[in-house]
Amino acid sequence: MSRIFRMSRRALTAAATAGLVVGTAVPALAQNATDDDKVVVFTTEIDKLHTYSDPQGCHRLPLAAHTLNNHTSGIVYLYPDPFCTSVGIPILPEHGMHTPPVGGSFSA
Which residues form the signal peptide (predicted)? Predict the structure, then answer.
């Protein structure tokens, strides 16, 4: 009986430790996710990422833009034209989307 008690005590200790680690790590990740608002645009493997810190208003995408990632706390709109004048596609926070082939833009 004492052997079963020791095994279940070890399992309980391991579960409690895992709960503490996950319980403290997840809120920290969620808090940091939107602390620095930015939009990140990927173009090609040989180019650096294009980062727009605290973006406001309309921004033209680089000519070779491939994907746009929204790391802001609000919705970013992706447009098929360079002036943000057509209907925009909403991109939710912490989501991304492929960009138009040429001449697109985004607004935050």
Answer: 1-30
Neighbours of 84 (CB within 10 A): 17
Tell me, yes or no, if the pTM score tops 0.70.
no
Note the pLDDT of residue 102.
86
Instruction: Report CA-CA distances (Å) from 83 to 19, 29, 43, 92.
Output: 49, 35, 19, 21
55 is written with which tokens?
A: 């973006």
Task: Identify the helix (H) or strand (E) that includes residue 71.
Answer: strand 67-71
What whole-number distance in Å separates Cα of residue 81 and Cα of residue 61? Answer: 10
Task: Say if residue 8 is exposed, middle or buried (CB neighbours under 10 Å; 0-12, 13-18, 19+).
Answer: exposed
Q: How far is CA 35 from the centre of its chain?
A: 11
Taking a C-beta distance cutoff of 8 angstroms, is the pair 49, 69 a contact?
no
User: In order along the chain (108 residues), what is the average pLDDT of each group of 10 residues?
Assistant: 56 54 48 72 96 96 96 97 96 97 92
Give the tokens for residue 75.
């919705």
